[in-house]
Amino acid sequence: MSIIHILPEAVANKIAAGEVVERPASIVKELLENSLDAGADRIEVSVEAGGKRLVRVEDNGCGMSHDDALLAFERHATSKIRSAEDLFDVATLGFRGEALPSIAAVSRLVLQTRHASEPAGTKVEIVGGKLRDVVELAWPGGTHVEVRDLFFNTPARRKFLKAESTELGHLATLVTHYALAHPERSFRLASLTNEIVNVSPVRDSRQRIYQLMGGQLLEQLIEITPVERRMPVYSSAGSEEQDGSEPVPVRLWGFISRPEVQKLNRNSIYFFVNRRQVRDRLILHAITEAYRNVLPPSVFPVALIFLELPPAEVDVNVHPSKTEVRFRHSGFIHDFARDSIRQRLMTSRPVAAFPLPKAAEQRSGIEGDEAEVAEALAEEPPLLRGAEERSPGPPRSGEHRPASGWRSPSAPTEATGFRLSAPRPAPRPGVLPLEDGEPIFRDPAGAAVPSPGGAAVPRLEEAGASEFPMDLKPLGQVEDSFIVATNTEGLWIVDQHVAHERVLFERHQRLRREKKVEGQRLLLPVIVELKPEQQATLGQIAEELAANGFDVEPFGQRTVAIKTAPADIAPQDVQRLLLEILDELGPEMRALSLEVLRNKISASVACHAAIKVNMPLDRNRMEWLLRELARTECPMACPHGRPIVLKYGLKDIRKAFKRT
Ligand code: ADP
Ligand code: MG
Question: What is the pTM of this model?
Fold first, then answer.
């Protein structure tokens, strides 16, 4: 019995052509996709020498009949599509019929498989593209593919392979991606000495993230529960005419980081379309837009975004490695992604954490948080990195993942035995008891663990997301820097400087949009000396500066005179503000869009004009500030991404006093 067929030439010619076997990870990608397409729910990958010596993928999928096991190695042989039309409606990961022959051409390959319809299994051996042996064998089911000595017959290509640890990094990244996209299946990746990934089936992506990346990352993430929108279907992209068909459902879910999490590159942004991990500029743009004014322009969030839509709406036949897609209605998808992410970001609680005294010794306020983020960045596991940039060192033996410092929760053996929260310790005086399901305690490294000495950092609940409240009553200030306020929900602490910064930032942006930023003429012009680089930048942004309330004129060879500055800025701050803007923009100026430039200027102006710390405020002023903050679009983070508000919920207060 045979289900594989060779595509007619006319169809084969329509398939994006190109070499897909580049390195061990690209082989594993193709084999994993085949296993997933075969319905396997248990996939094991073993590698030796970073996959250069051996890659083995074992699955428990449907397997192949004797005839198919041979046909599979013909070019353009596939069971997944038949006609050119099928190319527009691909529901499987594979469809090109090229992977197995391409891999077999450059390695020593052994395939063992059996289809349920046949009593015996088949073993096929191919060396450098030549069939060496076909035998029948007893085989329980599923498929094993073993690929040895990659590029043994093409030494020139072999030379391009990187160090074992680099190749292993790519493999780890790849298996992690697939494991993230398929939480209901189990995945294992092991080298001779290490088990790098081992995850058993779980219910959802949240649990899968915990298995792969640990509780610490999860704590920094906000979950987007599935959002569905109906997409009107037009007969052709760009056309306004509906073709009479029903709108189709598009679903998005996933995880995005809180504003205080800042990454220096895009490597922690993952995007999956119909469970296929893809790189997509459109969605990257949508994510950046969603974080506009929440994160500074030069940093990136962590995001895992899953999108599901009918296969006919996505063209996967764009690139031979199938890592790029084209949406039929890209505008809709872009806006849908942007809005869903933005909305969740806006309604998430404006709070990060409320450290109790003992824990606070280690991390004091915002500095502590920043240190933590820096630490997390430094400890970012290779799994999370695009291995192009940095490669992991060789994993130490005994470690389950190549990550050091990241918690490696031992993978539960059964889905049912899985618990997301840290074990609940007996309540102690002075320790806030936990909410179920919330990782609450952190050890100094930040991992969620039971607290041994009672030093605890209660994390705030994410549930029942609410807006920043309008009814806060200020009680006073701590150190003339933090406003303490209450309402029926509990106790709130607001950082007055960043709160005001947020208010001013949004106001400045509004005024700029309406072209109404007012400059204030300085009594005496401020003379500023500029370095050549600063001068160059000034020349490039002169117009935008003018629109932001500056009047800066050449004064001498190296000096300029600031005659007018944005209205809220005190004269003694004017010089620093200008220099900060020039320095921040720096040499990468040319790459910035006008919008990013405007954001940077608004953020700098807001920062310099805002109420400072160590400044006493009277009650009216505090009330005013809280009210204005509540009116902002994004009250939970300053334009630089720092948190503005901490909250100590009434429920936690009651529990701490044992009044539950
Ligand atoms: P494609 O996946 O694009 O169809 P491949 O060369 O990867 O092309 O595989 C050729 C065919 O071999 C597939 O269409 C499928 O029918 C079969 N096949 C490959 N791997 C497996 C597997 N692990 N289990 C069952 N069938 C498989
Ligand atoms: Mg395939």
Answer: 0.64
